[in-house]
Amino acid sequence: MSDSLVGSMHISAAGMSAQRSRMDIVAENIANAESTRTDDGGPYQRRQVIFETISPQNSFSSVFSSSLQGQNSQTVKVAEVIKDSRPPQELYDPSHPDADSTGMVKFPNVNTVEEMVDLNSASRGFESNVTVMQASKRMFLKTLELLR
């Protein structure tokens, strides 16, 4: 397989992995949008995925292709998952089991509309990387066909 095809497939795979992690975190946020009590004691805190660009020499593609190191290509990985620092939402509901002495309940800082937008964005990023990988595969197969 040519070096550029290996590189494009590696970059696409890394992008798909990163976007999949983002979709997992968004799903976790949506699932906990009403969780007023966690093991940490308090409402669930929204989480975000932070991406980081890396050069091929720091990744496994350098094992397959030393010529990729000379190119200016970069790929992506999940650097960390952080908690959103926005304060929790407070609602008055004295009948809620987690209400404080004034009847206020702290709810997670999760906005489901915002999460759905993030999910849609991550899904489109994943699909874009799948398209690139499929195009690379077609080019490789066409190259093999020409060499026969």
TrEMBL record:
Residues 83-99 have a biased composition (Basic and acidic residues). Residues 83-104 are annotated as: Disordered. GO terms for cellular component: bacterial-type flagellum basal body, rod. Residues 12-34 form the Flagellar basal body rod protein N-terminal domain. Signal peptide: none annotated. The keyword Transmembrane does not apply. It comes from the Bacteria. PROSITE patterns: FLAGELLA_BB_ROD. The keyword NAD does not apply. Keywords: Bacterial flagellum, Cell projection, Cilium, Flagellum. It is found in: Bacterial flagellum basal body. One of its GO terms (biological process) is bacterial-type flagellum-dependent swarming motility. Residues 102-145 form the Flagellar basal-body/hook protein C-terminal domain. The basal body constitutes a major portion of the flagellar organelle and consists of four rings (L,P,S, and M) mounted on a central rod. The rod consists of about 26 subunits of FlgG in the distal portion, and FlgB, FlgC and FlgF are thought to build up the proximal portion of the rod with about 6 subunits each. PANTHER family: FLAGELLAR BASAL-BODY ROD PROTEIN FLGC (PTHR30435:SF2), FLAGELLAR PROTEIN (PTHR30435). Belongs to the flagella basal body rod proteins family. This is Flagellar basal-body rod protein FlgC. It comes from Mariprofundus aestuarium.
